[in-house]
């Protein structure tokens, strides 16, 4: 069923957007404040970003322990904020029962922050830690360098994030500026509130009006117009194997942001006849198109191309310009129709948070309006000013996408294949089907073959994503795993194509060079490596010979597979049963992963200027309930102690995790100052203080049990929980069983879980970008 939208302006000036989306289970709110870094006093770089941080530190009515962040975490939701050049966004998503309380806390923190100087000093150090990480991050510095190419008079060329030196907390003038900025912009007339959820429009309106009563009345303030974006034409920049094309446009009409999104959709379309296909044929690794800035008719568009050979830089630039010229002249009516279908698919697959954030940013999943079509013409004219390099490429529009129009053939019923487990946990009425396929491999050639298959799947992965379906293919130790999720009918079609590709990858995928990816944040790199390190990396020697189709057939011949599907109604399930008759390999159960109960430390790349450490503490599969409750108790205090009080860094977290069928508690810290040994000592000290302070209060148990209700969980989380239970050998366990176990936990059981955790009863696994202490009792690797 399609969603319905209502726009309101309340008496206090607040603009409200309500979206009733019956397919949703959870609710989300997003507030956009029409002010950002460029609206703050230039004397205090980072003031707007600093205020965003301060608002999460609690109010008189809702102290930090009961503020928005802790409240959302307690209810299994997600919350965040973002400061941009001319806007600041605050957003959260929770189950329906917690929505009213979240809205109340959100609006209270926006309206009534506490400007306590001690809090400010502590949070300034967090801002400074972010600044240090930013200054050491190659990707962030590359983007900052791009922005230095705009006019020096434009605020976009300046430093806006803030640090210890740009935020003089003790200064009376700074405090006056901080509070004046809040008073001027954090009022109802300067805000847009969007709500999305399965509730009726009437219910959403009542929630919005109640929340709005906390906000001061006001009117929209005209933001200062920026100076000219660039002083001279921006030339392409070729560095190593990367080509950066930067386009600055001025005086663009309303609808330009939507026009850029439409243009990017076709710039990155990999189908035959388009730009991406032509570039890949010549050795392109990746193409990214993103707007770096947009305000008051100005826009800065960045096209980034990663090339296998820097020598084709001029050719790549000529292809881009040639395609843009073709796109300006071609009849785009067919693309407008397909784009409308793509937007429908995206809206159907979107979460409540996606929908709320896009509504507050005036970017709903909708067909391109007439206004945006005119803006597209103006945008293309601006992008094509000046001389165009010569190019003789023959362009054409892509063929219609079959994934947007899946039809069923009426076949006789067919039983599910032997290796497929059908989980009833996700009801068919959710219109979200998920299928998992996992192969256990024995051939030593599987690692390089996975790269071949992953490259071969990339075009299908891109097409599926455009149709609202997620397709993932991962390698972990001696396992390959395929996951496909989305509208059930489309999932069937994508799974069928994926199985064909996996058995007969295209010729180009055997010879293409693997794309090189930047490492990114050290803590994120460690998170990506955690599953393989947990189950034990495959240490089989790589073959020296060139691999081919016969090697792949040999891998499939000896592979053993198991699968799970959930969320499919009778018709789509019958189709999936038929599709899965063609799974390569033989069906067979996989034994659950057994983690050795030792303290193991793995020193892994990347070596970096900041220390990153992950601690994973496995627990028995039967201890899921008590460990989830323990994680619920730990999350807030751990963050408070290590990030706020000790100020180790801005990347600090703890959470319950299920990885390859193994349950456990995960702690993560990235610090610019503390050593790995010091980080671990702080975690150990925190855990040591836990057992005597823990209580299994009825309120906390009830809140956690409600989180584990299918109606309160996202569809993806329900499916993942069912899959992890199957990998652990507990496929018959239900969410209701887990809820009963959670409600039955007592103080003694909870404290015993903490004791077991502290003493590494089932082992500790540490991943760090540095070595273990020499005097530690660690198995290193």
From TrEMBL:
Q: Which UniProt keywords apply?
A: Hydrolase, Metal-binding, Metalloprotease, PQQ biosynthesis, Protease, Zinc
Locate the Coenzyme PQQ synthesis protein F C-terminal lobe domain: which residues?
Answer: 433-565
One GO cellular component term noted in the UniProt record for this chain:
cytoplasm
Stored Pfam families: Peptidase_M16 (PF00675), Peptidase_M16_C (PF05193), PqqF-like_C_4 (PF22456), PqqF_C_3 (PF22455)
| The UniProt record lists the keyword Transcription | no
Ranges for domain Peptidase M16 C-terminal come to 177-329
The Gene Ontology biological process annotation of the record reads:
proteolysis; pyrroloquinoline quinone biosynthetic process
Domain (Peptidase M16 N-terminal) ranges: 16-149
| Family matches, as InterPro entries | Metalloenz_LuxS/M16, Pept_M16_N, Pept_M16_Zn_BS, Peptidase_M16, Peptidase_M16_C, PQQ_synth_PqqF, PqqF-like_C_4, PqqF_C_3
Q: Which cofactor does it need?
A: Zn(2+)
GO terms for MF: metalloendopeptidase activity; zinc ion binding
Please list the residue ranges annotated as the Coenzyme PQQ synthesis protein F-like C-terminal lobe domain.
629-723
Q: Which PROSITE patterns match?
A: INSULINASE (PS00143)
Keyword Zinc found:
yes
Annotated pathway: Cofactor biosynthesis; pyrroloquinoline quinone biosynthesis
Annotated function: Required for coenzyme pyrroloquinoline quinone (PQQ) biosynthesis. It is thought that this protein is a protease that cleaves peptides bond in a small peptide (gene pqqA), providing the glutamate and tyrosine residues which are necessary for the synthesis of PQQ.
Q: Which family does it belong to?
A: Belongs to the peptidase M16 family.
PANTHER family xref list: INSULIN-DEGRADING ENZYME-RELATED (PTHR43690:SF18), NARDILYSIN (PTHR43690)
Q: Which NCBIfam families match?
A: PQQ_syn_pqqF
Question: Can you say what this protein is called?
Answer: Coenzyme PQQ synthesis protein F
């Amino acid at each position: 069923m399609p969603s319905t939208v209502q726009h309101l302006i309340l008496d206090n000036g607040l603009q409200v957007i309500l979206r009733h989306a019956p397919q949703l289970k959870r609710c989300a709110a997003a507030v956009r404040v029409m002010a950002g870094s460029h609206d703050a006093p230039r004397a205090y770089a980072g003031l707007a970003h600093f205020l965003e941080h301060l608002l999460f530190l609690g109010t008189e009515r809702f102290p930090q322990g009961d503020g928005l962040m802790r409240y959302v975490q307690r209810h299994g939701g997600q919350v965040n904020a973002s400061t941009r050049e001319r806007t600041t966004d605050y957003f959260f998503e929770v189950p329906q029962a917690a929505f009213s309380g979240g809205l109340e806390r959100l609006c209270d923190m926006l309206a009534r922050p506490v400007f306590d100087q001690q809090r400010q000093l502590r949070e300034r150090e967090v801002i400074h830690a972010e600044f240090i990480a930013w200054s050491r991050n190659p990707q962030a510095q590359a983007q900052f360098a791009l922005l230095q190419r705009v006019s020096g008079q434009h605020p976009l060329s300046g430093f806006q994030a803030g640090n210890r030196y740009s935020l003089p907390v003790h200064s009376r003038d700074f405090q006056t500026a901080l509070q004046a900025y809040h008073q001027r912009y954090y009022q109802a007339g300067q805000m847009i509130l969007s709500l999305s959820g399965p509730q009726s429009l009437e219910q959403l309106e009542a929630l919005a009006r109640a929340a709005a009563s906390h906000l001061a009345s006001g009117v929209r303030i005209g933001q200062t117009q920026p100076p000219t974006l660039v002083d001279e034409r921006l030339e392409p920049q070729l560095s190593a194997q990367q080509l950066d094309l930067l386009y600055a446009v001025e005086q663009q009409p309303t609808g330009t942001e939507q026009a850029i999104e439409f243009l990017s959709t076709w710039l990155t379309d990999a189908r035959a006849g388009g730009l991406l296909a032509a570039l890949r044929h010549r050795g392109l690794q990746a193409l990214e198109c993103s707007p770096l800035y947009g305000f008051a008719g100005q826009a800065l568009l960045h096209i980034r191309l990663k090339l296998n050979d820097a020598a084709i830089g001029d050719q790549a630039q000529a292809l881009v310009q040639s395609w843009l010229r073709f796109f300006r002249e071609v009849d785009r009516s067919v693309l407008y129709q397909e784009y409308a279908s793509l937007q429908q698919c995206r809206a159907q697959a979107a979460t409540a948070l996606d929908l709320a954030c896009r509504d507050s940013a005036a970017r709903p999943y909708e067909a391109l309006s007439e206004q945006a079509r005119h803006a597209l013409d103006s945008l293309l004219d601006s992008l094509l000013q000046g001389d165009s390099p010569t190019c003789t490429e023959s362009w054409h529009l892509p063929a219609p996408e079959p994934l947007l129009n899946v039809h069923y053939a009426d076949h006789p019923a067919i039983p599910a294949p032997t290796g497929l487990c059908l989980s009833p946990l996700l009801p068919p009425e959710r219109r979200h089907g998920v299928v998992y396929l996992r192969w256990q491999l024995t051939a030593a050639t599987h690692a390089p073959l996975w790269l071949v298959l992953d490259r071969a799947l990339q075009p299908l992965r891109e097409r599926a994503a455009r149709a609202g379906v997620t397709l993932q293919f991962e390698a972990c130790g001696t396992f390959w795993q395929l996951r496909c999720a989305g509208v059930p009918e489309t999932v069937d079609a994508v799974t069928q194509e994926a199985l064909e590709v996996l058995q007969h990858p295209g010729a180009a995928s055997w010879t293409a060079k693997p794309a090189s990816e930047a490492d990114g944040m050290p803590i994120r790199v460690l998170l990506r490596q955690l599953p393989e390190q947990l189950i034990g990396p495959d240490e089989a020697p790589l073959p020296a010979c060139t691999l081919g189709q016969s090697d792949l057939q040999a891998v499939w011949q000896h592979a053993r597979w198991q699968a799970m599907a959930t969320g499919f109604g009778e018709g789509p399930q019958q189709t999936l049963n038929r599709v899965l008759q063609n799974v390569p390999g033989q069906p067979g159960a996989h034994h659950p992963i057994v983690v050795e109960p030792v303290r193991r430390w793995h020193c892994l790349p990347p070596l970096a200027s900041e220390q990153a450490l992950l601690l994973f503490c496995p627990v028995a599969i039967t201890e899921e309930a008590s460990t989830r409750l323990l994680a619920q108790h730990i999350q807030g205090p751990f963050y408070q102690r290590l990030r706020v009080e000790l100020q180790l860094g801005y990347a600090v977290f703890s959470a319950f995790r299920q990885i390859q069928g193994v349950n456990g508690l995960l702690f993560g810290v990235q610090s610019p100052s503390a050593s790995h040994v010091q980080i671990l000592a702080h975690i150990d000290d925190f855990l040591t203080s836990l057992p005597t302070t823990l209580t299994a209060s009825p309120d906390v148990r009830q809140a956690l049990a409600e989180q584990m209700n299918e109606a309160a969980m996202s569809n993806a989380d329900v499916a993942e929980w069912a899959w992890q239970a199957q990998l652990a050998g507990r496929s018959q366990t239900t969410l209701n069983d887990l809820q009963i176990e959670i409600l039955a936990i007592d103080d003694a059981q909870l404290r015993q879980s903490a004791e077991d955790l502290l003493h590494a009863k089932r082992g500790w696994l540490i991943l760090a970008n540095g070595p273990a202490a020499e005097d530690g009792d660690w198995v290193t690797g």
